[in-house]
Design goal:
This protein is an all-alpha fold and about 150 residues long. The protein has a single domain, classed as dinb family like domain (Four Helix Bundle (Hemerythrin (Met), subunit A)), CATH 1.20.120. Helix content is about 70%, strand content about 0%. Helix 1 runs antiparallel to helix 5, helix 3 runs parallel beside helix 5 and helix 3 runs antiparallel to helix 7.
Length: about 150
């Protein structure tokens, strides 16, 4: 049951991330950092893909993904199409890994120490979904702010 809810949420929000990045009028706007804003939409997008590919793909799915968190926030002017490709790759990894998790695996401790350190796989996946949604809201705000 939890797997199907998470699949629905991640599919919805990864589609929304793709739509937000595609909706920018120009690629340059994706990378603007207006006064009072800490991160561009491009960096938030890279961060979300890196975060999810690490915690879901590499840790749970045993992919060969190696995260470079610093680069998620320092890279600039990555072409929009490259980001859309990363979003698609991240979506496929999320759905593949989550579909493969049994209810018993969802109740096991998450294999890395994260947050409080005492989270089940299911609990941490819910956290990752809310983290995605939080930054998705920031990207939506950024897009509207830079296009006005």
């Amino acid at each position: 049951m939890l797997s199907s809810i998470l699949i629905n949420l991640f599919e919805r929000d990864m589609s929304r991330l793709e739509e937000e990045i595609a909706a920018y009028e120009t690629e340059a706007a994706i990378w603007r950092v207006p006064a009072g804003i800490h991160n561009s939409a491009g960096n938030l997008c890279l961060h979300l893909c890196g975060n999810l590919q690490h915690f879901v793909g590499a840790v749970l799915g045993k992919t060969d993904y190696v995260r470079n968190r610093e680069l998620e926030f320092s890279a600039k002017n990555v072409p929009r199409q490259d980001m859309l490709t990363q979003i698609g790759t991240t979506r496929r990894i999320l759905l593949t890994v989550i579909v493969g998790l049994t209810p018993e695996e969802m109740e096991k401790p998450y294999p890395e120490k994260v947050l409080s350190g005492d989270l089940t796989v299911g609990h941490f996946l819910v956290h990752l979904s809310t983290h995605l949604n939080y930054h998705l809201g920031q990207i939506n705000y950024h897009r509207r702010l830079t296009q006005s």
